[in-house]
Design brief:
The chain has 83 residues and is mainly α. This is YkgJ family cysteine cluster protein. It holds the Pfam family CxxCxxCC.
Length: 83
């Protein structure tokens, strides 16, 4: 599966514990990443400063569902289940 352009769920729902430029402590679950644009595109995509956890994320129907809203719900559930 390819990422849905403009979804951004993986930049909102999960927590990120590794440092992100401008977010040295990472980000809490449910908070938009500082680098997520209004169009829900990653401002760090393709840059070496993009955290490894972000670069390694692979879109999959199991976690992305069929829509942005479903992805937010699934990723949020996974965040809670693994906390």
């Amino acid at each position: 599966m390819n990422c849905r352009p403009g979804c951004g769920a993986c930049c909102i729902a999960p927590s990120i514990s590794s440092p992100i430029p401008g977010m040295p402590s990472g980000k809490p679950a449910g908070e938009r990443c500082l680098h997520l644009s209004e169009r829900n595109l990653c401002g760090l995509f393709g840059l070496s400063s993009r955290p490894a956890v972000c670069s390694q994320f692979q879109a999959d129907r199991e976690v992305c569902g069929d829509s942005e809203q479903e992805a937010i719900q699934l990723l949020g559930w996974l965040e809670q289940a693994t906390a």
